[in-house]
TrEMBL record:
<keyword id="KW-0378">Hydrolase</keyword>
<comment type="similarity">
    <text>Belongs to the ComB family.</text>
</comment>
<protein>
    <recommendedName>
        <fullName>Probable 2-phosphosulfolactate phosphatase</fullName>
        <ecNumber>3.1.3.71</ecNumber>
    </recommendedName>
</protein>
<dbReference type="InterPro" id="IPR005238">
    <property type="entry name" value="ComB-like"/>
</dbReference>
<dbReference type="GO" id="GO:0050532">
    <property type="term" value="F:2-phosphosulfolactate phosphatase activity"/>
</dbReference>
<dbReference type="GO" id="GO:0000287">
    <property type="term" value="F:magnesium ion binding"/>
</dbReference>
<keyword id="KW-0460">Magnesium</keyword>
<dbReference type="GO" id="GO:0050545">
    <property type="term" value="F:sulfopyruvate decarboxylase activity"/>
</dbReference>
<dbReference type="Pfam" id="PF04029">
    <property type="entry name" value="2-ph_phosp"/>
</dbReference>
<dbReference type="InterPro" id="IPR036702">
    <property type="entry name" value="ComB-like_sf"/>
</dbReference>
């Protein structure tokens, strides 16, 4: 098992804009019933067999062989494989690892630009510190996840002290630089260059759509992610 981040007493918003958390939000928005995010490919396959669910896997930006889907949000949108009413086990290079490592938090939700509004509503209703867990890339900083943290901080500035940490302030400043042309700004990032080389420009553009699914909030329950409806989140 992966070592856990010490998030006890806090709420974790796990973010991997490119592309794991964007794909998970899209999956639930497309009628997937629940998602099992796992660290290892073998575990992903085993869950697929055990639950009769779809499997999605990616390593180093490429769809892993022997799985139903890769890590593209379009896998849930293009209609090639019917996904409505199905569950999905998923394993990716960074995003599902970050999710598994965040499970010590009091609540774990999934964030992306696609569901920013749902994350904002949920975070506002919490009486606890909210930590944005940026998946990054293989243990390193990445621009797109941090810029998302800044977007969240800006929307929460009326209810949280966003200047209480340098990390939050830095993220906010990056977002303020980026938001006028998010696409152009993130074209500089290493991951976008990697995705470009894998001909995934379409995924990049899609993952930057803000509030495409403003009512979809994936939340960890027992051993899986399920969609918590926006209206419910507001009353928690
Ligand atoms: O599929 C992705 O976008 C990345 C692959 S990598 O970072 O280029 O190795 O995986 P993710 O877990 O979504 O960061
Ligand atoms: Mg990533």
């Amino acid at each position: 098992m992966l070592p856990l981040y010490d998030l006890r007493g806090r709420v974790a918003v796990v973010v991997d804009i490119l592309r794991a958390t964007s794909s998970i939000v899209t999956a639930l928005a497309s009628g997937v019933t629940h998602v099992f995010p796992v660290a290892e490919l073998a575990e992903c396959q085993a869950l697929g067999a055990q639950h009769g669910c779809l499997t999605a896997a990616e390593r180093d930006g490429r769809a892993a062989e022997g799985f139903d889907l890769g890590n593209s949000p379009f896998g849930y949108l293009d209609g090639v494989l019917p996904v409505r009413g199905r569950a999905v086990a998923i394993s990716t290079t960074n995003g599902t690892q970050a999710l598994r490592r965040s499970l010590a938090a009091d609540a774990v939700v999934v964030g992306a630009f696609l569901n920013l509004g749902a994350v904002v509503e949920f975070a506002r209703a919490q009486q606890k510190d909210v930590v944005v867990v940026c998946a990054g890339w293989k243990g390193k900083f990445c621009l797109e996840d941090t810029v998302f943290g800044g977007a969240l901080a800006e929307r929460l500035a009326d209810s949280f002290d966003v200047s209480s940490s340098d990390a939050t302030l830095a993220a906010l400043h990056l977002w303020q630089q980026a938001k006028g042309d998010l696409h152009g700004y993130l074209l500089q990032s290493a991951h976008v260059r990697r995705l470009n080389s894998l001909e995934a420009n379409k995924d990049f553009a899609f993952c930057l759509r803000v509030d495409e699914y403003p009512a979809v909030l994936p939340i960890w329950r027992e051993d899986r992610l399920v969609a918590l409806q926006h209206e419910v989140a507001r009353t928690l």
